[in-house]
């Protein structure tokens, strides 16, 4: 016992006493030849000396629990066989009574210390324990408040830190301000958080926030694994580049016990590069860390990049070589958009038309003043159309529109760009005419050139043609992205 830290000794002694002496009464005690006769430990001693007699199965020896815990080596008889090597002389059963001795014996002094330790009123640590219970309750309240704030920020995808979290700052960031809001609504929370928390135990540091976020991530991952159970699954993987490093995002795709198709975001993992070997290692590491195996993988979905779908060294091929059941599927909606982009870029008139649409968005939407003029022109024309009966009024009709720039990665944005331009065509021309007469020389020339191009038959024809084509493909694209879409309906949309 003296080998333990003095600050831990009473706690360890109490644990031993609460557990009680080791008394394996059902053990088959081995025989030993003593004075020419076979002798063994008599288990009836457990009943006689119930509170202190111990037996070691490994050493075939008897010990005294009280003396082991409290007797010091410098006390009289402090190094007797009941505390060090163990008692094995089964011939001398009287040694047990000799060990107990009189009222002032070392054994009885050790027994008295054990009884005092277990008496709450005489135990100094008990009073400390009562105080510790209060401290623990305060800590739990403080931790629950921080956890509530962090769970809300995680669910909403909001930033934690503020630009200035100093004591004088008026806005210390989302986490601190949300924690303060919680304290305003609860006296119990207010009494233990922020300024009322111990200086070194506020649970608001960046490290604490990260620890709680990691704990939340582990709990969510465990819930997903539990929901998955022993079922097979598929993975969806894509690049998720940060400002400073390459990252890989992974989604699990599986069917729950009720037959519903479930998609769960499973995490982001840092990768040194995006070649196929590195990505495969990252996927295996992510799955292995949650006790999942590639042998249960039944599908893989990536974009059409060569490092993903390469026939010989792509990620798809590397995983198929290890598990032939992992069928590769390239998103049909993504393939449709890639086909549209490729066809459009091979037709000079269509590509020119989209370049003009982008220039219109840049020139008209460059300044807030121009956007306001466009909005006013559009509102005036709607009022005139309503008065003349050309359009009807009603809920959801005649909503405010704005010019949208076509995006390369989202081909559906081209459809909305053309639709808005058609609805706002005359208003856009009027704004360009204003720019032509009042802006700087360079902008005047740019506005004039756009007006000339917008009034050509080729431009107007291409806008309406692509609007009709993209209208059909937009419905197909939306259908292909539905979880409950069946292949028959999708094929009918393709045929249209």
What are its keywords?
9% strand, two-stranded antiparallel ribbon, alpha/beta, 20 helices, 9 strands
Round the mean pLDDT to the nearest integer and report it. Answer: 81
Number of strands: 9
Low-pLDDT regions = none
Protein structure class:
alpha/beta
Cα-atom Rg, whole angstroms?
39 Å
Helix content: 40-55%
Number of helices: 20
Morphology? elongated
Strand arrangement in the largest pleated sheet: 7-6-5-8-9
What topology does this entry show?
Elements lengths: L5 H14 L12 E3 L2 E3 L5 H4 L4 E4 L4 E4 H6 L24 H6 L5 H13 L5 H33 L17 H11 L2 H4 L15 H23 L4 E7 L7 E9 L5 E10 L5 H13 L8 E5 L4 H4 L5 H8 L4 E2 L3 H14 L2 H17 L3 H21 L23 H12 L1 H14 L2 H14 L2 H24 L6 H9 L1
Parallel strand pairs: 5-8, 8-9
Antiparallel strand pairs: 1-2, 3-4, 5-6, 6-7
Helix pairs in contact: 6-7, 6-9, 10-12, 13-19, 14-18, 14-19, 15-17, 16-19, 17-18, 19-20
Description:
The N and C termini lie far apart (86 Å). This protein has 496 residues and is α/β, with parallel strands linked by helices. Helices cover 53% and strands 9% of the residues. It contains 20 helices and nine strands. The longest helix is centred in the first third of the chain and has 33 residues, at 124-156. Helix 6 (124-156) crosses helix 7 (174-184) and helix 16 (412-423) packs across helix 19. Strand 5 and strand 6 form a beta hairpin.
